[in-house]
Amino acid sequence: MTDLDDIFTARGSVLIAGASINGSTADIAIDETGTIAAIGEDARRAIDADIVIDGSDRLAVPGLVNTHTHAAMTLLRGYADDMLLQEWLSQKIWPLEAHLTGDDVYAGTKLACLEMIKSGTVAFNDMYFFMDRAAAAVDDMGMRATLAYGFIDLGMEEKREAEIKATEALVDHIRSLNNPRIQAAVGPHSVYTVSPEGLSWCAEYAKEQGIGIHVHLSETEKEVTDCVAQFGKRPTYLLDEYGCLTPRTVAAHCCWLDEAECRLLGERGVSASHNPASNMKLAVNRAMPYHWLKQYGANVALGTDGCSSNNNLDIFEEMKFAALLQKFAWNSPTLLPAGEAVMMATAAGARALGIGPGTLTVGAPADIVLLDARAVCNTPLYNPDSNIVYACNGGAVMTVLCGGRVLMHERTVPGEEEIIQEAAAAARSLIERAKNSA
Ligand SMILES: N[C@@H](CCSC[C@H]1O[C@@H](n2cnc3c(=O)[nH]cnc32)[C@H](O)[C@@H]1O)C(=O)O
Ligand SMILES: [Zn+2]
């Protein structure tokens, strides 16, 4: 077995020896390109391993995907809780965000990456500002991410011009990084913060650049009633009218949808990001109609939302909240069984971001998580999906690989103390600056 220090610095092929995959024990071979080359009997012959990881007492599962975050909001964790969404945003969050700097976003995004890696997430879909600094954090941490500048014009032409420039600058910057793990998306925030002109620019630009769209959709009832009052149609139709619903669109929340809207999202091939913890915390008072979205073929994945409305980035918790909320809200104990919750966090998430199948199969990117099979939450282990969704949280994650690179091993992530200290210092100074200007 390779030593802990060498595991993080060595590059090349990786053998995970004797891990449990879907109930049977198998070796996993990962080649130098970070792709799963073989699983099972062929694995030892497939590569001449540079790194060997002991997989005994480990459950191997695909890396988890978080399809809706505002990563740097880790700095606002616990800053304002227990409020109405509109008041929370306009009275607390937006005034504090006005003082955020690029350095803050770098420190906050690094803390978010650390938190995600520690809970088994390898890829995330982020919408925020100073996204060039978020990209630097993702690059340093070795994760995958799709990064969008949160486009908000509030119906003002001058602001729209600025948001267009910021969006174009981010897309150019990400292209210049030439990092295969980092991609750009266009991020029209929502129908209540972006004008029709803004929405249609975002859709055109995404199409022209061949990139995805990341948008909030029908989070609250007020969003829907205001949209109907202003535009005479529900938010889904407004987004569709301006071209924002595509197979590369991730729509976060999707709570207040009727059946016809779910059918349209399915027809357009949209991915819906379910964020049950945030939705319950902000009391949006309606659970995403998962049954309709599933029936009409929308791709339903999971997200945490930002750390100010969750307040963590643990997708294990999100799997459990999703499975429980759906059952409770729609009065159906058979709705969203454990196996489907795992699929939402893995295969559906990977499809939403276009990063491979999100499965442990030959030819797939080696995005692999090893869980402690001997942990209390995994004892007994009748059905791994059940333990993963209902009993475990991210604390059961021992090792994380992204594209064949080891990001965490035996729960150690290189540099974690500094990341925590720097984020804590950034948060302190942010609050200080906001206080001094008030
Ligand atoms: N260009 C914008 C930045 C937008 S970033 C995305 C925004 O989404 C906000 N946000 C976070 N969580 C939610 C949510 O649940 N609903 C709506 N907006 C949210 C977040 O605080 C941030 O302001 C500007 O100049 O203000
Ligand atoms: Zn959000």
Automatic annotation (TrEMBL):
Q: Which InterPro entries match?
A: Amidohydro-rel, Deaminase_MtaD/DadD, Metal-dep_hydrolase_composite, Metal_Hydrolase, MTA/SAH_deaminase
Pathway field? Amino-acid biosynthesis; S-adenosyl-L-methionine biosynthesis
Q: Which GO terms of type biological process are on file?
A: S-adenosylmethionine biosynthetic process
Q: Does the keyword Hydrolase apply?
A: yes
* Short name of one Pfam family: Amidohydro_1
Alphabetized, the UniProt keywords read: Hydrolase, Metal-binding, Zinc
| Residues where Zn(2+) binds | H68, H70, H216, D305
Spell out the molecular function terms from Gene Ontology. 5'-deoxyadenosine deaminase activity; 5'-methylthioadenosine deaminase activity; adenosine deaminase activity; metal ion binding; S-adenosylhomocysteine deaminase activity
Q: Does the UniProt entry include the keyword Hydrolase?
A: yes
Record-annotated Amidohydrolase-related domain positions: 60-406
This protein's source sits in the domain of life called Archaea
Q: Which cofactor does it need?
A: Zn(2+)
* Sites where the protein binds substrate: E97, H189, E219, D305
Under Enzyme Commission nomenclature, its number is 3.5.4.41, 3.5.4.31, 3.5.4.4, 3.5.4.28
Query: What top-level class of enzyme does the UniProt entry assign?
Result: hydrolase
Name the catalysed reactions.
5'-deoxyadenosine + H2O + H(+) = 5'-deoxyinosine + NH4(+); S-adenosyl-L-homocysteine + H2O + H(+) = S-inosyl-L-homocysteine + NH4(+); adenosine + H2O + H(+) = inosine + NH4(+); S-methyl-5'-thioadenosine + H2O + H(+) = S-methyl-5'-thioinosine + NH4(+)
Textual note on the cofactor: Binds 1 zinc ion per subunit.
Q: Which family does it belong to?
A: Belongs to the metallo-dependent hydrolases superfamily. MTA/SAH deaminase family.
Matches recorded under HAMAP family: MTA_SAH_deamin
Q: Tell me, how does this one assemble?
A: Homotetramer.
Q: What does this protein do?
A: Catalyzes the deamination of three SAM-derived enzymatic products, namely 5'-deoxyadenosine, S-adenosyl-L-homocysteine, and 5'-methylthioadenosine, to produce the inosine analogs. Can also deaminate adenosine. The preferred substrate for this enzyme is 5'-deoxyadenosine, but all these substrates are efficiently deaminated. Likely functions in a S-adenosyl-L-methionine (SAM) recycling pathway from S-adenosyl-L-homocysteine (SAH) produced from SAM-dependent methylation reactions.
What's in the misc comment field? SAH is a product of SAM methyltransferases and is known to be a feedback inhibitor of these enzymes. As a result of this inhibition, organisms have evolved efficient enzymes to metabolize SAH via different pathways. The pathway found in methanogens differs from the canonical pathway, it uses the deamination of S-adenosyl-L-homocysteine to form S-inosyl-L-homocysteine for the regeneration of SAM from S-adenosyl-L-homocysteine. 5'-deoxyadenosine is a radical SAM enzyme reaction product which strongly inhibits radical SAM enzymes.
The UniProt entry, under PANTHER family, shows:
AMIDOHYDROLASE-RELATED DOMAIN-CONTAINING PROTEIN (PTHR43794:SF11), AMINOHYDROLASE SSNA-RELATED (PTHR43794)
Query: In its UniProt entry, what is this protein called?
Result: 5'-deoxyadenosine deaminase
Q: Which organism is it from?
A: Methanoculleus thermophilus
- Lineage of producing organism: Archaea, Methanobacteriati, Methanobacteriota, Stenosarchaea group, Methanomicrobia
